[in-house]
Amino acid sequence: MFDTMTFTKIVGGICGALLIFLMGKWAAESLYHTGGGHGGEEHASGFVIAVEEGDAPVEEAAADFPTMMAAADAEKGEKVWGKCRACHKLDGTDGTGPHLNGVVDRAVGSVGGFGYSGALSAVAEVWTTENLFHFLENPKGFAPGTSMGFAGLPKAEDRVNLIAYLQTTGG
User: Fold this and answer.
1) Residues 6+ apart with CB under 8 A from 22
2) CB contact set of 58 (below 8 Å; sequence gap of 6+)
3) 107 - beta bridge partners?
4) 10, containing H or E segment
5) Shortest CA distance to 111 belongs to which of 162, 101, 150?
6) Where are the domains of the chain?
7) Within its chain, how far is the Cα of 166 from the centroid?
8) Residues of the chain under the 50 pLDDT cut
9) GO: which molecular function terms (predicted)?
10) CA distance 134 to 61
11) Which of 26, 77, 98, 149 could form a disulfide with 111 if both were Cys (CB 3.0 to 4.6 A apart)?
12) Alpha carbon distance 90, 93 (integer Å)
C-alpha cells in the first residue's frame, strides 16, 4: 500500500510545488520591485500624477478681516446656516449644541444649562466676530478638545457671511 514509489511521488510533488512557488516569487519581485539594492538603481514607489497649472489648489487671498466683514452678506450667510441647523437652533432652545441666537459678542460658555466641554473658554472669553471667524474655520484646531464635531468652513467668504447672519439673530 505505501511503497517506495508512492513515497517518491509525494516528495516529488512537494518539491515541485515549492519550486513553482519560489520561481513565482522571483518573477514577481523582478516585475514589481521598487526599492534600491539591485544594481544601484532606486525607483520611486507610487505614481506621479501630472496636473495642469490651473488644477493646483489656489490659496485663498489673505484679505484683512474688517474688509471681509464689511462686504459680508447676511442672506448668503442664512444659506450657510443650513450646515449648522442640524445641531444648533436660533429660537433660544438648545439642540445637540447650544442655541446661537445672540452669539456674536456673547461670553463663551454662557448658555445656562448646556454642558460645555471647557475647551472653548480656555481659548477665548467672548465670541467676537474675529474669534467666531477663526473657530468656524477649524473648530478642533481653534479649541483642541472641543466637543463640536463639525469639520469647519474652509471658505472665508462663507464664514463672514454666516457671522453677518448670526449678528442679525439678536439675543
Assistant:
1) none
2) none
3) 126
4) helix 4-32
5) 101
6) 65-168
7) 25
8) 55-61
9) electron transfer activity; heme binding; metal ion binding
10) 16
11) 98
12) 7
Phi-psi region of 130 (alpha: psi -120 to 50; beta: other; left: phi over 0): alpha
Topology of domain 65-168, CATH: Cytochrome Bc1 Complex; Chain D, domain 2 (1.10.760)
- Which helix H or strand E contains 14, and what residues bound it? helix 4-32
- Grid coordinates given for 53: 497649472
Cα–Cα dist 105/126, whole Å: 6
What's the confidence (pLDDT) of residue 56?
Answer: 45
pLDDT tens for each residue of 41-86: 555 555 666 666 654 444 444 568 888 888 889 899 889 988 888 8
Instruction: Give the C-alpha distances (Å, rounded to integers) separating 70 from 63, 65, 130, 134.
Output: 12, 9, 13, 17
Spatial distance between the Cα atoms of 103 and 162, rounded to a whole number of angstroms = 12
Residue 43 and residue 90: Cα distance in Å, rounded?
Answer: 58
Measured CA to CA, the distance from residue 161 to residue 75 in angstroms comes to 8
Other CB atoms closer than 10 Å to residue 169's CB: what's the count?
A: 17
Looking at the chain, the number of H-run helices and the number of E-run strands are 6, 0
Rounded (10°) angle between helices 156-167 and 129-137:
140
